[in-house]
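sry for the spam today, last one i promise. struct tokens for design, 163 residues
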């Protein structure tokens, strides 16, 4: 990992840092020199397992944007998750819909720091890792966290998300 010391964070990451601080979360946002755009890239840059990367995936359910915080080790089973969550069909959001719902671009979508909070699911697989990394608003920023913190930060629901 190669943190960039002494430089101001991008504005979108400042939003995330503010949301973390407001929730009393002590893990700090860091900006890396390498890309963290995908879970594989983030895991390589951070030297962690890909399963310990918490991807922030936006779906639309009954036209409402929702967030699924998913372990990077597997894909979301959208049909099974909708049934478990008791919601209508989940459709993957387009890049424009992601931007509108979160104020962030694909590759940097964070669990928090959005214009409005989104109904959120936290993947039960994330509880298997003592330390997780999530995106902090840009494709080079991340923060360390845990499944418990993600649940508290988002008011989310812990559910099985993968296969
Ligand atoms: N920064 C990392 C985590 S540290 C990250 O954002 N990973 S991610 O998985 O949440 O973001 C990449 C995801 O964006 C991909 O898994 C994919 O689900 C989604 N994505 C990529 N391209 C598109 C697209 N064209 N439309 C909708 N979603 C997309």
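last one done:
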């Amino acid at each position: 990992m190669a943190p960039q010391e002494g430089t101001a964070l991008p504005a979108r990451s400042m939003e995330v840092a503010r949301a973390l601080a407001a929730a009393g979360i002590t893990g700090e946002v860091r900006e890396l020199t390498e890309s963290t755009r995908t879970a594989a890239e983030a895991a390589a840059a951070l030297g962690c397992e890909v399963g310990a990367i918490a991807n922030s995936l936006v779906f639309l359910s009954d036209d409402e944007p929702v967030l699924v915080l998913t372990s990077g080790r597997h894909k979301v089973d959208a049909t099974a998750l909708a049934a478990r969550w008791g919601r209508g069909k989940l459709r993957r959001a387009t890049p424009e819909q992601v931007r509108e719902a979160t104020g962030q671009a694909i590759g940097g979508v964070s669990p928090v720091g959005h214009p409005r909070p989104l109904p959120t699911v936290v993947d039960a697989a994330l509880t298997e890792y003592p330390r997780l990394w999530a995106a902090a608003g840009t494709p080079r920023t991340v923060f360390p966290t845990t499944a418990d913190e993600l649940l508290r930060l988002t008011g989310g629901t812990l559910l099985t998300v993968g296969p």
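The pocket of 5CA is lined by residues 36-39, 42, 53, 55-57, 92, 94-95, 106-109, 133, 135, 139, 142 (CB under 6 Å). ok im logging off now
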